[in-house]
């Protein structure tokens, strides 16, 4: 096994043996075996351990085990406690994702602070197969089918050639102690469901499924390399820069065999997701003028080009809504629909819904935060009211004020979003077309 890991490290160019490596050790068989193998290779190591406090006394036992292991080997030991559940709740993400975010950020901080060249993670061959299945279940492209990379930035994974059974065998033969994580047997987490429920079924179909998956992943990686070459070749013909803008040729994009995939690879580094890219791709067959947003960038569908620009600090709080839009995701999720006025139309009483006279609106509408001096005519009133006075009347807290958005048509406020419409844009007997917005 030692010869195999040495060969893998050399073939994959993971690191040189005279470079300092920070080894992440949970106490489980994979990370403990990894540490032992790197020590056998006489690599200079440090040990990093996270306590996520998800298993009470068991988590504390892992900490003590890894601390003692590092002391026995005479290695530097670093540990940190995390309030994982609070972090997950505050960021509205899963416990799994919270633990991942917390540990990787801390590992990188340690690497920089103590001058380690790379961070070694104990992922093995079984993890690769499980990751591909997870990605397939959630939706993925070719990158998600290529599994876990042996080297990605400062992260290296020397155990990828080894299935877990081989790690367990090595630990037994070499009398290596490790800790069993009781949650590995549970099926609350996605990866455990794959491991304990899906993989056994696949093994019934193909007893060598883990080997087959490893071989599949290798083929996918080769396909990914070809894919990346084609994407880069297309980029040369599609894209050029002008001042602070990135321009993508619409006529040349239309000529491509897979415009959506090409567009995704061009735009994903700027925060655009698959759903956004598909809408952008559809827009190239429509009229110009439509705008799309990520958290950091704005993309304009112009006549000949898709024009990408970074959202400046001065307009980060302004977003446009085109007449043909059906959904806004940033900064609020708003469903948009166009209706004909019928005799059976009922006026909504829900403040999260605004039904406006479409013929009175000037597009694109603008969504922005309030400014000093803003005023509107609350529905049912004849006179104007300052937005600041409206906030006082509604007993808005400071946070409520900061969280409130205004919908603007031309220079007029048409809706204090989620609170009150403007009387000048309400539905009347003369209304024929309705522009409906619903705050999710």
UniProtKB/TrEMBL annotation:
Gene3D superfamilies: HUPs. It catalyses: cytidine(34) in tRNA(Ile2) + L-lysine + ATP = lysidine(34) in tRNA(Ile2) + AMP + diphosphate + H(+). Keywords: ATP-binding, Cytoplasm, Ligase, Nucleotide-binding, tRNA processing. Its main location: cytoplasm. One of its GO terms (biological process) is tRNA modification. It is found in: Cytoplasm. GO terms for cellular component: cytoplasm. ATP binds at residues 26-31. GO terms for molecular function: ATP binding; tRNA(Ile)-lysidine synthase activity. Residues 365-437 form the Lysidine-tRNA(Ile) synthetase C-terminal domain. The keyword Nucleotide-binding applies. Belongs to the tRNA(Ile)-lysidine synthase family. Ligates lysine onto the cytidine present at position 34 of the AUA codon-specific tRNA(Ile) that contains the anticodon CAU, in an ATP-dependent manner. Cytidine is converted to lysidine, thus changing the amino acid specificity of the tRNA from methionine to isoleucine. The N-terminal region contains the highly conserved SGGXDS motif, predicted to be a P-loop motif involved in ATP binding. This is tRNA(Ile)-lysidine synthase. The gene is tilS.
């Amino acid at each position: 096994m030692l010869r195999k890991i040495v060969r893998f490290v050399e073939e994959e160019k993971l690191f040189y043996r005279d470079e300092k490596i920070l080894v992440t050790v949970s106490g489980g068989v994979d990370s403990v075996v990894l540490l032992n193998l790197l020590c056998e290779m006489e690599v200079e190591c440090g040990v990093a351990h996270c306590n996520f406090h998800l298993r009470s006394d068991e988590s504390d036992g892992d900490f003590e085990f890894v601390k003692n292991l590092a002391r026995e080997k005479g290695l530097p030991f670093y540990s940190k406690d995390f309030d994982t559940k609070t972090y997950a709740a505050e960021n509205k993400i899963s416990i799994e994702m919270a633990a991942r975010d917390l540990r990787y950020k801390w590992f990188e901080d340690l690497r920089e602070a103590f001058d380690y060249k790379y961070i070694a993670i104990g992922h093995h061959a079984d993890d690769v197969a499980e990751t591909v299945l997870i990605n397939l279940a959630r939706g993925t492209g070719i990158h998600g089918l290529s599994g876990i990379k042996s080297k990605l930035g400062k992260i290296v994974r020397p155990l990828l050639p080894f299935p877990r059974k081989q790690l367990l065998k090595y630990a037994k033969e070499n009398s290596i102690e490790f800790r069993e994580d009781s949650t590995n047997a549970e099926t609350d987490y996605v990866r455990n469901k794959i491991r304990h429920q899906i993989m056994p079924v696949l093994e019934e179909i193909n007893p060598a499924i883990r080997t087959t998956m490893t071989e599949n992943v290798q083929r996918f990686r080769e396909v990914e390399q070809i894919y990346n070459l084609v994407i880069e070749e297309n980029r040369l013909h599609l894209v050029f820069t002008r001042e602070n803008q990135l321009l993508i040729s619409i006529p040349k994009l239309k000529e491509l065999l897979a415009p959506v995939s090409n567009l995704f690879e061009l735009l994903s580094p700027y925060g655009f997701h698959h759903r956004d890219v598909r809408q952008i791709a559809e827009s190239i067959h429509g009229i110009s003028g439509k705008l799309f947003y990520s958290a950091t960038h704005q993309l304009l569908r112009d006549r000949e080009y898709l024009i990408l620009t970074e959202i400046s600090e001065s307009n980060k709080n302004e977003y446009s809504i085109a007449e043909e839009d059906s959904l806004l995701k940033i900064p609020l999720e708003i469903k948009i629909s166009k209706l004909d006025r019928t005799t059976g139309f009922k006026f909504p009483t829900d403040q999260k819904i605004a039904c406006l006279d479409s013929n009175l609106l000037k597009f694109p509408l603008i969504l922005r935060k309030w400014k000093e001096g803003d005023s509107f005519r609350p529905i049912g009133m004849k006179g104007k009211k300052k937005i600041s006075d409206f906030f006082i009347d509604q007993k808005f807290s400071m946070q409520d004020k900061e969280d409130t958005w205004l919908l603007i048509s031309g220079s007029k406020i048409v809706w204090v979003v989620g609170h009150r419409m403007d009387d000048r844009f309400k539905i009347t007997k003369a209304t024929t077309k309705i522009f409906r917005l619903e705050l999710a």
